[in-house]
Amino acid sequence: MNPGRAAWARPLAAAVACAGALAYTVSKVDLARREELGMPGFPAPQSSYAGRSGSDVLSAQLGNAGLGLGMAAVALLLLLPLTGRLVRWTVWAVSWTGIAMVTAGVVGFTARATGAAPGLGEPPPHPAPAVAALVVGAVWAAAWIVVTVGSMRRPRTVPAGRSPARPRPEALTSR
Q1: pLDDT by residue (tens digit) across 53-108?
Q2: 143 within 8 A of 17, measured Cβ to Cβ
């Protein structure tokens, strides 16, 4: 990777991923306020409301909004120098799990929007908000992948007295 590009690519990707998570959070708070299930542009079928009170819908959507805040925080955590193997691997595992969830949502809602998966529900009644939601989700997932991969590729701390360019002594003798 070009070092000049790396200086701005990861922070930009993290900001875009964080913005995607915050857009998701705001949309879930809005749906909670209206006591509606679904996603922006993709209303849930009426059968989804069977046996649920308004407070159930409110709680579910606010819980989803909380997950959105957590995903925004993880995207930003990837910019920090993650010290300790357990911390790094935990953040990376949470990040890849979130990426898989967002990507699955984009794929599933795209299948619903195109009518390719009728079992997921009717295509959206108004295409513009549905397309906007899908674009935001796809850009969010792509940016989150970029910042996660960048975090995983970042050089680790070099032991004192050893230059990153200087090979380990045992590597020279094993040839």
Answers
A1: 878 999 999 999 999 999 999 999 999 988 888 999 999 999 999 999 999 999 99
A2: yes
3, 12, 1, 159: which is closest to 79 by C-alpha?
12
Helix locations, the chain, DSSP H: 3-33, 54-77, 85-114, 127-153, 169-173
SS3 61: helix
Residue 148 is encoded by which pair of tokens?
């996660």
41-54 pLDDT, tens digit per residue, is 888 888 888 888 87
Separation of alpha carbons 41 and 141, rounded Å: 19
CA distances from 152 to 26, 103, 122, 136 (A): 29, 20, 40, 24
Question: CA of 48: how far to CAs of 18, 109, 120, in Å?
Answer: 30, 16, 12
Tell me if 91 sits within 8 A of 74, measured CB to CB: yes
- CA 169 to CA 136: how far, in whole Å? 49
Geometric angle at alpha carbon 20, from 104 and 26, rounded to 5°? 105
Rg of the chain on CA atoms, in Å: 21
